[in-house]
Amino acid sequence: MRPAMDLIVQRPEGLYCPPGDFHIDPWRRVDRAVITHAHADHARPGHGHYLAAAPGEGLLRSRLGEGITLQTLAYGETLEHNGVRISLHPAGHVLGSAQVRVEHEGRVWVASGDYRTTPAGAVPDRTCAPFEPVRCHTFITESTFGLPIYRWRPDAELFAEINTWWARNAEAGRASVLQCYSLGKAQRILANVDASIGPIVCHGAVEPLNRAYRAAGVPLPETRLVTEVSDKATLQRALVLCPGSAVGTPWIRRFGDVSDAFASGWMQIRGWRRRGGQDRGFVLSDHADWPGLLSAIGASGAERVIVTHGSVPVLVRYLQEQGLQAESFETEYGDEA
Questions:
Q1: Which candidate, 83, 93, 34, 37, places its Cα nearest to that of 60?
Q2: Would you say domain 9-150+286-328 falls under CATH 3.30.390.10?
Q3: Which InterPro entries match (predicted)?
C-alpha cells in the first residue's frame, strides 16, 4: 500500500496541492491559483487562473485588474478539480477572505490564509463574514500574533477610544490622522466610528477599496478625497484615514496641524509606539490574537498543524507540548506592518 502524499506541500512558487495541481496564494506566477484574500502578499498579479470567494471579487479586480481570469465560489460551495474537492469558508479577516478546504481520498486539509476569530459574546464584524471553524485532519495556520501577550480588547472599548480622540481633536481644530492598512483595517474603522463627529477623508489608496466594499453591500459612512474638500475648517475637524506611506508627503501637509495615530496589533508593544512617534497607538488587528489562534486550531479538530508566517517557533513548540503533531512551512507572506 503506497503511503498517502501530503495534500499541500511547499514549492518555490508557494503552497502547492500535488493531486489537484494548483497553488494556494502563490508568490510566483503559476497557472492556477486559489486565493484566500486580496491583500498583496496573498493575491499577486500574473497568474493564469484565479479562484476565490465571491464576496472578494470586487477587491481582487480592483487590485489585480478587471481583465484577470477569475472564477468565484460562494462560501461552502464545492468544486472538483483533478479529483480534489475544493471549498472556501469564511476567515473573518477582510471582505472575501477565505480558508481553503481541500479533500482527496478521504483526507481533508485546510489552509487558513489570514484569519480573525470572533470571541464568544462579541458582536461580529460588519465588514466581512465571521470566521467559521472547518474540521480537518491537517490545519495550516498563520501565526502573525502567535505570542501569549497578544490579546485583543473588545471592539466597543477600542472604538470608543478612537471616537473620543477624534472628538477632542475636532474641538481643538486639529485633524485626526489615523494611519492604517488601506484594505480591511480602514473599512473596519469606517464601519465602527461615530460619523456624526465630523467629516471623514480617505487617502487615494483607501477610497477605491471603500467603493468595492460598498458595491459588495457593506454599509460605510460617507467619505471624501482631500481634493473634494475646499473648506480648511472642514479638514481641521476631519478623521483622516491613510496608509503610513502618506506621512511626510505633500498630501498630509494639506491638513495643517494634526494629531496622528496608528492602528495595528503591533501597538500592543510599547516599543512599537515609541518608534513610530505617533501621538496615539490603537491596538486594532484583523488577525487572530493568541486565544483566537488556539481556539481556531482546537475547533478544527486537526491532529497535525502546520504553522506559517509570524511567531512560528513559539506556536509550534506550544502545540507540540499539547500533544499535537506541529511543524512549519516557510512562506513569503507578510504581516500588517
A1: 37
A2: no
A3: MBL (IPR050698), RibonucZ/Hydroxyglut_hydro (IPR036866), Xnuc_lig_assoc (IPR026360)
